[in-house]
UniProtKB/TrEMBL annotation, chain A:
Protein name as catalogued: Queuine/other tRNA-ribosyltransferase
Taxonomic superkingdom: Bacteria
From TrEMBL, chain B:
Protein name: DGQHR domain-containing protein
Annotated InterPro entries: DGQHR-contain_dom (IPR017601), DNA_S_mod_DndB (IPR017642)
Top-level taxon of origin: Bacteria
One family name in Pfam for this protein: DndB
Length: 414, 391
């Protein structure tokens, strides 16, 4: 089972200093920074998924790449750009896709088959996913009920996706593209997904990505996979787009899934309210010490004269100092918790996180973790604060996710 | 009058502590008296504070200062911690009438030496301090935060009880027009020592620009428009962006010294000059015209061609630094599709744009860059780089 990580230009700056919160002023973004596969002791993923929408942007949705970075990616290719070959323990694969969620609201996808082949070929991907159009909705009554309000729209999107898949494959063949084309199945029910996979196999695809399943409940995903399994040729490999759900990996594998991609372990580190710091058996809450200058709500209240900036800065500093002293054993846990609560009251104050913070502080995950970042960042990695700490924790979460996955897969093998 | 401050009561017992500072009283007009003095910036918070803008319970306006801008303070603080910093411009403080001036010498027409007596109450609340910072709150904060023992600073003060007067002075000192960017860029190469970070990182590209504009062997000599070269046709900013793009992600990157933000100037200049010489030779009729007559001299052309320099440099990188001949040879590949001064760009079968319909916008720069580089890739696909013709 291969795990692909969708790139969104997430790196850490090794020159960042936690105490002064400063970095080298001459640092060149991306080039001097480290990706997860460079920062962690072992690469947490088997490959990278890079989406055209993230690289190129779309009208109304800026890409994540600067123009010079984009040009360099096209010149040197995806392997060099991401420095994938500098890891020698194993070969990391690369998969390209279109980023269908960025244009989900449009009537038709914004790319032509040729443009997408250009992108995959120009960047030198191993695998290239055909252009798809996401169906937002899951309702099996649409299979039979001709008056279902979304039936026509959903069928149309499925049809567009299949037509583009056919065109994409024939263009890639005609141009002798070196990447392996991957078709996308879109559907709204087990039956419709099965129909998609069947059609893609007829077109000639032996690798199929299952799209639009991110919002689905696990039993629905499994129902779809089981329906697909009836029509799936034994040689057809499935990829789950945007799905992790470690605990189901065994069932996924049994239905022909050989790879998946997900950002959730990484993104949880700064998106999730509490489950943002992973340990092997459970998640903990990172300690929120927002930057006075970085928290929009607090900033607005300071600007309006409702909160004293000096008071906020003082509390922020006291929190940082207390957390560090707790780590060296010179301050009690009660003092840290009290300060964190006081600062939280000033910033947000909607809920008291003291109990979960206490568990985080007592667990001291960073002390024994072997990920490669916890050792160098120490307790700083447990702070919910700024992208340098949050992304380090995100990388750590990827490392733990990888271990969880390995554990589940060992279960399968045994 | 809206004032949130308690007035000094002249009948109350004398204040225990005071700061006595040598000062100059300056009479600017019949009703205008200023005081000029120096004080350790670390002492400032003892007698002066900042009046933050807010609304009181009756929605009346109070104070006038915005919050501290932490990034700006960091930038000043780093400067203060650098070697040999200097802040020549004075902090402006408004004192209330508890502050007194004792003349010590004869006054000439407008100036009189003496001592300024400032009451100090270290236990007192901020709002009870005798001084308000009218201008220089970021500098004051930076001195307060800086890891330096002390930092004497010049202060200009006036005495008033009126918030309204402080507010108008605050607006007056803060509504000046910032320096034009072009002037700053032109001055950058001939500066020494620490500068704010954003300028510090531009100093090196600005130095390259200066060479390109003034070296006698540069094809761009006198073509870059700066405050002292107004006849130039290429905007300074276009050249800076082209250079910065290449320094971070292109052909100049290998010549950069990671630790200092500088680099091997000679090698860099050689490559840039050779490239633009080849561009001039390839497109003689589009060269040196104002941007409205030639898109090559326009931001869109300069930046797009900059990417092409990077692409050619990359292709040759494993063999040699491309020479003028190499660049000419490679530029020939795309010369036919360029419509710098007339005609129509054929970006795609159904996407044509008149030559002068390209603007200096991110979208158009990208369109043109992708087109030129796409054509270059197609033309050079499978072809090896040109052999060296001359030894």
């Amino acid at each position: 089972m291969k795990f692909f990580f969708p790139d969104s230009q997430d790196q850490i700056d090794p020159s960042f200093d936690f105490i002064s919160e400063e970095r080298s002023i001459y640092r060149v973004r991306q080039r001097d920074d480290h990706y997860a596969h460079e920062a962690l002791r072992a690469s947490p993923f088997d490959g990278l998924l890079v989406s055209k929408a993230i690289v190129d942007g779309l009208p109304g949705a800026a890409g994540k790449y600067t123009a010079p970075q984009r040009q360099r990616l096209y010149r040197v290719g995806v392997r060099d750009f991401f420095r994938l070959d500098e890891r020698h323990d194993r070969r990391l694969e690369t998969m390209g896709d279109c980023g269908a969620f960025t244009y989900v609201r449009d009537d038709v996808p914004p790319y032509t088959a040729d443009e997408v082949v250009d992108f995959y070929e120009g960047c030198g991907f191993d695998l290239g996913i055909s252009i798809d159009h996401v169906i937002l909705g899951y309702d099996k009554t649409a299979d039979t009920d001709a008056s279902h309000p979304h039936r026509d729209g959903w069928q149309q999107r499925q049809q567009i996706t299949l037509e583009l898949a056919a065109e994409f494959r024939s263009r890639a063949r005609a141009r002798k593209a070196r990447f392996t084309p991957v078709g996308v199945a879109q559907g709204w029910s087990p039956t419709s997904y099965a129909a998609s996979v069947s059609a893609l196999q007829k077109i000639g695809y032996s690798r199929v990505a299952m799209g639009g399943m991110v919002p689905l409940k696990t039993p629905d995903i499994l129902a779809c996979l089981e329906a697909v399994n009836v029509v799936r040729k034994s040689s057809t490999q499935l990829h789950l787009l945007g799905i992790s759900r470690c605990e189901n990996v065994e069932a996924f594998a049994a239905n022909g899934v050989t790879s998946f991609d997900s950002t959730s372990a990484f993104r949880q580190s700064f998106k999730d309210d509490h489950d943002n710091y992973y340990a092997l058996d459970r998640n903990y809450s990172a300690l929120r010490v927002p930057q006075v200058d970085g928290n929009p709500k607090l900033k607005a209240r300071i600007r309006a004269g409702q909160v004293s900036q000096a008071q906020a800065i003082k509390l922020e500093r006291q929190c940082l100092q207390a957390v560090r002293r707790y780590d060296t054993g010179t301050v009690t846990i009660e003092t840290v918790l009290e300060l964190l609560r006081e600062y939280d009251q000033l910033c947000d104050g909607r809920k008291d996180r003291t109990a979960s913070y206490q568990q985080t502080l007592e667990a001291q995950l960073w002390r024994d973790c072997q990920c490669g970042l916890c050792e160098s960042a120490g307790i700083e990695i447990a702070l919910f604060r700024g992208s340098e700490r949050n992304k380090r924790r995100g990388f750590h979460n990827l490392h733990v996710f990888r271990q969880r996955l390995a554990r589940e897969l060992e279960g399968t093998a045994a | 009058m809206t004032t949130s401050r308690r007035r000094g009561d002249l009948t109350s017992p004398p204040i225990e502590q005071e700061l006595r500072l040598p000062a100059l009283q300056v009479r600017q007009g019949p009703n205008r008296i200023l005081y000029s003095f120096a004080v350790d910036g670390k002492e400032l918070p003892r007698f002066a504070t900042v009046s933050r803008i807010r609304r009181d319970t009756d929605a009346g306006i109070q104070g006038y200062q915005r919050p501290e801008v932490l990034s700006h303070i960091t930038s000043i603080r780093k400067y203060l911690e650098s070697e040999d910093p200097m802040i020549p411009n004075a902090i402006v403080i408004a004192f209330d009438k508890r502050v007194l001036f004792e003349p010590s010498g004869p006054a000439d027409a407008y100036a009189c030496p003496g001592t300024l007596v400032i009451p100090i109450d270290d236990q007192g609340a901020d709002a009870d301090k005798p001084g308000w910072v009218v201008d220089g709150q970021q500098r004051c904060a930076a001195i307060r935060e800086a890891r330096v023992e002390s930092f004497p600073i010049c202060v200009t003060a006036f005495i008033t009880e009126s918030d309204a007067e402080q507010r108008s002075q605050f607006i007056l000192v803060n509504s000046t027009k910032p320096l034009p960017k072009g002037l700053i860029y032109e001055l950058l190469p001939s500066t020494v020592g620490a500068l704010p970070v954003a300028l510090q990182v531009r100093r090196f590209p600005a130095t390259l620009l200066e060479h390109l504009n003034y070296d006698s062997d540069s094809p761009l000599q006198s073509l870059i428009q700066t405050p002292t070269t107004p006849e130039g046709v290429i905007k300074d900013n276009s050249i800076l962006r082209m250079l910065e793009n290449s320094l971070s992600d292109g052909a100049l990157y290998p010549y950069r010294y990671a630790g200092t933000g500088e680099g091997d100037v000679d090698s860099m200049l050689a490559m840039i000059k050779d490239f633009w010489t080849a561009v001039r030779d390839t497109f003689p009729s589009a060269w040196a015209l104002p941007p409205r007559r030639s898109r090559l001299m326009h931001g869109v052309g300069i930046i797009g061609m900059g990417y092409l320099m990077d692409a050619i440099g990359d292709r040759y990188a494993h063999i040699r630094t491309p020479t003028v001949d190499d660049f000419r040879y490679e530029l020939d590949e795309i010369a036919d599709v360029c419509e710098w001064t007339s005609g129509t760009w054929r970006f795609a079968p159904d996407h044509h744009r008149k030559w002068n319909d390209l603007q200096n916008t991110p979208g158009d720069i990208r369109l043109l860059s992708n087109y030129i580089l796409g054509e270059y890739r197609v033309q050079t696909m499978g072809r090896r780089v040109r052999r060296q013709q001359r030894a």
